[in-house]
C-alpha cells in the first residue's frame, strides 16, 4: 500500500517543495548535504563560476524563438547539464517546473528558471553556483544526428574520374529550377509564342535539321485519314463523350509522342491549354489542335504525328501472361475423361452436381 518507487520519489519531492514554501531551514551548505547523504559527487572539482550574461545567453538558446521556456525545453536543459541523478529525477523536474511556472501560463521566464535551479540545487545537495555553472557550460541545446557511413567512391578522392578529378562540374545558378521545370517553362513559352501568332520557320523537317534531330529523316508513317483518326479518337474516349486528361496522356504514350522535346509535363500543359473553359474533356477538334502544337514542339510534320496516333488503333490492353503449367498445358499428361476432351458441360440452369 506504500506505492511504487516513482510515487515515493515524487512524494519526497512534493514534501521538499512544501518544506521550501514553509520557509524551512536547511542545515549547512550543499556540500554538507552531500556528506550527510553519502554523495561523493560534491567532492569533485566545482565548475567555473557562471556569469549572469552567460546564463541569460543559454536560457535564450534553449527558448529558441519562443518568449519563454516550456516544459520540454526545461527538461532538455536539465538533461544536457547532467542535473538528473539519484536525488533528482525527471519526474521531480516536472514537479519543479509546474511549481514555478506562472499561473495560467505554460512557460518560464528567466527569473522563474533561476528559482527552479535553486530548488534543484537544494534537492541534489549541490551549491547553487555549481548548478548554474553546469547549465552555462552546456552552451545551449546540442543538436546530434546519425553520422554517415564511409563510401569509398564518394569519400576517397583518389577514385574520382573525369571532370570530378578537377573539382566536378560547375553548379547551376540558384533559382533556375530543375531540368523538368526548365522543360515546362520552355513549353509554356512555346504556347505563349503560339498564342501571339509567332511564325515558325519552315516545315517540321527543317525544325529537325536545325535541332540536330535525326528522327525526322526516318521513313514517314502512312498518311492518316479523317475516318481513321475519328475512329481512334472514339476508342480512346471509350464510353465518354470526350477525351479526358488520362486518356489524352495514354494516347500520346501509345503513339510514342513523348521524347526529348515533348515530356509528359508538356502534355499536361497542352491539354489544359485547349480544353474548353469550365470542362474537363477534349472534343475531336480540340484534340487535333493539341496534336498540331505537339508536332510544332517536337519538330515533326503534323501529318506524321496524326499518322502515328492512327497507327495505334486505339488503347492497347495488356496483362500479365500466365506461367506454363505442365499438367494443364501439356495434353499428353491428361488422364481419364480429359483424354477425350473432358466431361460434358451441364445445361444452363440445372444447378450443380450436389443440387
From TrEMBL:
<feature type="region of interest" description="Disordered">
    <location>
        <begin position="190"/>
        <end position="225"/>
    </location>
</feature>
<dbReference type="InterPro" id="IPR011992">
    <property type="entry name" value="EF-hand-dom_pair"/>
</dbReference>
<protein>
    <submittedName>
        <fullName>Uncharacterized protein</fullName>
    </submittedName>
</protein>
<dbReference type="InterPro" id="IPR008907">
    <property type="entry name" value="TPP/p25"/>
</dbReference>
<comment type="similarity">
    <text>Belongs to the TPPP family.</text>
</comment>
<dbReference type="Pfam" id="PF05517">
    <property type="entry name" value="p25-alpha"/>
</dbReference>
<feature type="region of interest" description="Disordered">
    <location>
        <begin position="1"/>
        <end position="51"/>
    </location>
</feature>
<feature type="compositionally biased region" description="Basic and acidic residues">
    <location>
        <begin position="15"/>
        <end position="24"/>
    </location>
</feature>
<dbReference type="GO" id="GO:0005874">
    <property type="term" value="C:microtubule"/>
</dbReference>
<dbReference type="GO" id="GO:0046785">
    <property type="term" value="P:microtubule polymerization"/>
</dbReference>
<dbReference type="GO" id="GO:0032273">
    <property type="term" value="P:positive regulation of protein polymerization"/>
</dbReference>
<feature type="compositionally biased region" description="Polar residues">
    <location>
        <begin position="1"/>
        <end position="13"/>
    </location>
</feature>
<dbReference type="GO" id="GO:0001578">
    <property type="term" value="P:microtubule bundle formation"/>
</dbReference>
<dbReference type="GO" id="GO:0015631">
    <property type="term" value="F:tubulin binding"/>
</dbReference>
Amino acid at each position: 500500500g506504500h506505492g511504487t518507487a516513482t510515487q515515493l520519489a515524487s512524494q519526497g519531492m512534493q514534501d521538499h517543495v512544501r518544506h521550501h514554501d514553509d520557509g524551512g531551514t536547511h542545515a549547512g551548505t550543499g556540500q554538507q548535504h552531500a556528506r550527510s547523504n553519502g554523495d561523493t559527487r560534491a567532492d569533485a572539482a566545482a565548475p567555473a563560476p557562471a556569469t549572469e550574461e552567460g546564463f541569460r545567453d543559454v536560457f535564450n538558446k534553449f527558448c529558441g524563438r519562443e518568449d519563454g521556456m516550456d516544459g520540454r525545453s526545461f527538461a532538455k536543459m536539465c538533461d544536457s547539464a547532467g542535473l538528473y541523478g539519484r536525488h533528482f529525477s525527471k519526474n521531480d523536474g516536472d514537479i519543479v517546473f509546474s511549481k514555478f511556472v506562472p499561473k495560467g501560463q505554460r512557460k518560464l521566464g528567466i527569473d522563474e528558471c533561476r528559482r527552479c535551479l535553486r530548488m534543484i540545487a537544494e534537492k541534489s545537495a549541490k551549491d547553487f553556483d555549481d548548478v548554474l555553472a553546469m547549465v552555462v557550460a552546456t552552451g545551449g541545446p546540442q543538436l546530434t544526428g546519425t553520422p554517415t557511413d564511409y563510401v569509398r567512391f564518394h569519400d576517397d578522392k583518389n577514385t574520382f574520374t573525369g571532370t570530378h578529378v578537377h573539382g566536378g562540374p560547375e553548379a547551376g545558378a540558384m533559382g533556375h529550377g530543375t531540368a523538368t521545370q526548365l522543360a515546362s517553362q520552355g513549353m509554356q513559352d512555346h504556347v505563349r509564342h503560339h498564342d501571339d501568332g509567332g511564325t515558325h520557320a519552315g516545315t517540321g523537317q527543317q525544325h529537325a535539321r536545325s535541332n540536330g534531330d535525326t528522327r525526322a529523316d526516318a521513313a514517314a508513317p502512312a498518311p492518316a485519314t479523317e475516318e481513321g483518326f475519328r475512329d481512334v479518337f472514339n476508342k480512346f474516349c471509350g464510353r465518354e463523350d470526350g477525351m479526358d486528361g488520362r486518356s489524352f496522356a495514354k494516347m500520346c504514350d501509345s503513339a510514342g509522342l513523348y521524347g526529348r522535346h515533348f515530356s509528359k509535363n508538356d502534355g499536361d500543359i497542352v491539354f489544359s491549354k485547349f480544353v474548353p473553359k469550365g470542362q474537363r474533356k477534349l472534343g475531336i477538334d480540340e484534340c487535333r489542335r493539341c496534336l498540331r502544337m505537339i508536332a510544332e514542339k517536337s519538330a515533326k510534320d503534323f501529318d506524321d504525328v496524326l499518322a502515328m496516333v492512327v497507327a495505334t488503333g486505339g488503347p492497347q490492353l495488356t496483362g500479365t501472361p500466365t506461367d506454363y503449367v505442365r499438367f494443364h498445358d501439356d495434353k499428353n499428361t491428361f488422364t481419364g475423361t480429359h483424354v477425350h476432351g473432358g466431361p460434358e458441360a451441364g445445361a444452363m440452369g440445372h444447378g450443380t452436381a450436389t443440387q
